[in-house]
Specification:
The chain starts with a helix and ends with a strand. The radius of gyration is 27 Å and the shape is globular. It is α/β, with parallel strands linked by helices and 459 residues long. The protein has a six-stranded mixed sheet. A five-stranded mixed sheet has the order 11-10-12-9-13. α14 (353-370) crosses α15. It has four domains: 3-103 and 203-238, 3-Layer(aba) Sandwich (D-Maltodextrin-Binding Protein, domain 2), CATH 3.40.190; 108-199, Periplasmic binding protein-like II (D-Maltodextrin-Binding Protein, domain 2, 3-Layer(aba) Sandwich), CATH 3.40.190; 247-305, no CATH class; 313-458, Reverse transcriptase/Diguanylate cyclase domain (Alpha-Beta Plaits). β3 and β4 (41-43) form a beta hairpin. Helices cover 47% and strands 21% of the residues. It has helices at 3-15, 45-56, 69-78, 91-94, 137-145, 157-165, 176-186, 215-224, 227-238, 248-268, 270-305, 315-323, 344-351, 353-370, 394-410, 434-450, and strands at residues 22-25, 30-31, 35-38, 41-43, 60-63, 83-88, 97-99, 104-106, 108-113, 129-133, 150-154, 171-175, 191-196, 201-208, 313-314, 334-341, 376-381, 384-390, 421-427, 456-458. It binds guanosine-5'-triphosphate. Guanosine-5'-triphosphate (GTP) is lined by residues 309, 340-346, 348, 353, 356-357, 360, 382-383, 449, 453.
Length: 459
């Protein structure tokens, strides 16, 4: 930060009353739509929330401009900035910041080239290289929980996405909103959202420990923000475009060419000119709409194929990919396993639906961790899951069920709940329709339930 900024902040502080002091804050200058500094001014989602906080409390805020997120974190550590309006809480940041309540949540996603397969989370990254923005919370998360993943630290989200687009790294992980915004602005049509990436961002206000006393006011202010406020901010920033990135020389060339073209047509005939002008405008509008449609289809495809609670593939995906699949599998061995949690209703009744939901998520984690790369795990509905194992016979499927049962027994579920499952197994017969095989596996599951649960039966 330059000395003149300090002088300005100090002058501002002395001009205000003691009870209503100016709070100096830092932001990430390049993290749209969350926040950015453009022409020296703070903009983005966090700017709108800070304005609301100023309205709902008697706090006042003064931006300390920085040129990188790293510099902002350094100024916070030195106490030269007192607050940062939107960030995740991490153990490292706890050393110098105190955090408000969560006021904004957003999922993280994996991004890859369209030619890559969909990935069911970090477990299935395998030997691929993963780019993560330096100094972001995800770096600490991956180091702690997935230390074997081959990572590359990018200076910014922008650099990480460009490296994926250029083929320098295989996968990038970042926040869904900012990734989406960047892909749109830069027309990176070779990229796709390939899967969910780790826990949701839970964004809070951070203040330095010396200013911890402000948190009470900040939390009270955040609690006053209404649903309508949240929705207005979400709508405003969901489809952002950034003007600074426009290539003006190209715009001028296009305008020049259009101008000459229009003059020429005027010379020829005024009627034809009008007609052509309208045609050009309509084409532009159509192209814009087509782009927008493609982008929305990509997002919808992903969301339509995944279960929002467990992040597994959902029934729709399973039906589309397997049950409606006319392909003959020939000699290829394919086994189906249908899994149903035992006495799940009793878990809901005793501990409530929120705990029931957590148990579903934890069972999904166990299933995912137990299958091999290439196997597909889907949530069939309620407390029922399906696994499709390719190149696996009945014996292999039985071993998988035993492994899952053992993992469930060893897993520490919420509230110390003991969870068991029943399994129905069937192997696809030669020329058998997969729908019939699925029905056989379902009958086998029924038999496992009837004969005492916590076991597998084969059809
Ligand atoms: N918490 C939660 N519960 C769900 C969800 N989907 C379905 N359920 C509940 O799952 C329970 C399933 O109950 P049942 O079909 O009787 O099966 P069960 O109690 O597991 O008994 P068995 O399958 O015979 O061992 C019902 O109470 C549903 O309300 C969900 O997404 N979250």
């Amino acid at each position: 930060m330059t000395p003149s900024v300090f002088a300005f902040a100090e002058a501002a502080i002395s001009a205000t009353s003691q009870s209503n002091p100016m709070i100096r804050y830092c932001v990430d200058p390049d993290w749209l739509p969350y926040e950015a500094i453009i022409d020296g001014r703070h903009t983005g989602i966090s700017s709108d929330y800070l304005n609301l906080l100023a309205d709902y409390t008697n706090l006042r805020f003064e931006l300390v401009p920085t040129s990188s997120w790293r510099q902002s974190l350094e100024l916070l550590q030195q106490g030269e900035c007192e607050l940062t309006p939107i960030l995740n809480q991490t153990p490292k940041r706890d050393e110098y910041l105190s955090f408000s309540d969560v006021f904004f949540k957003s999922p993280n996603v994996l991004v890859s080239l369209k030619t890559q397969p969909f990935l069911q989370g970090f477990e299935h990254i395998g030997q691929r290289t993963l780019a993560i923005p330096k100094d972001y919370r995800l770096v600490e998360y991956i180091q702690q929980f997935y230390p074997h993943i081959n990572t590359m630290l990018a200076k910014t989200e922008r650099e990480g996405l460009e490296k994926v687009a250029n083929g320098d790294v295989d996968v990038f992980v970042g926040s869904m909103f900012s990734v989406n915004a960047y892909i749109q602005q830069h027309g990176l049509t070779s990229l796709k959202i390939a899967g969910w990436g780790g826990p949701e961002d839970e964004l809070r206000v951070g203040v330095i420990h010396a200013k911890k006393g402000l948190l009470q006011q900040i939390n009270a202010g955040l609690a006053k923000i209404t649903h309508a406020d949240h929705i207005a901010i979400y709508k405003k920033w969901h489809n952002i475009t950034v003007v600074e990135d426009i290539d003006y020389s190209l715009v001028f060339q296009v305008i020049g060419a259009l101008g000459l073209f229009i003059l020429f047509l005027l010379y020829r005939t005024v009627c034809v000119t009008k007609y052509n002008f309208h045609l050009t405008e309509n084409n532009k509008e159509l192209q814009k709409l087509q782009h927008e449609l493609e982008r929305k289809n990509n997002d919808l495809d992903f969301l339509a194929q995944h279960d929002p609670l467990t992040k597994l593939y959902n029934r729709h995906y399973f039906n589309q990919t397997f049950l409606n699949d006319e392909r003959a599998y020939g000699n290829d061995r394919v086994s189906l396993v249908i899994i149903d949690i035992d006495f799940f209703k009793a878990i809901n009744d005793m501990h409530g639906h929120v705990v029931g939901d957590k148990i579903l998520v934890q069972v999904a984690q166990v299933l995912q961790a137990s299958v091999r790369d290439g196997d597909v795990v889907a949530r069939w509905g309620g407390e029922e899951f399906v696994i499709v194992c390719q190149h696996v016979d009945i014996q292999g499927a039985k071993e998988l069920c035993q492994r899952i049962a053992q993992e469930l027994q060893d897993f520490s579920f919420d509230n110390n709940i003991k969870v068991t499952c029943s399994f129905g197994i069937a192997m696809l017969g030669e020329n058998e329709a997969i729908q019939l095989c699925f029905e056989r596996a379902d009958m086998a599951l029924l038999q496992a339930k009837r004969t005492g649960r916590n076991r597998y039966c084969c059809a």
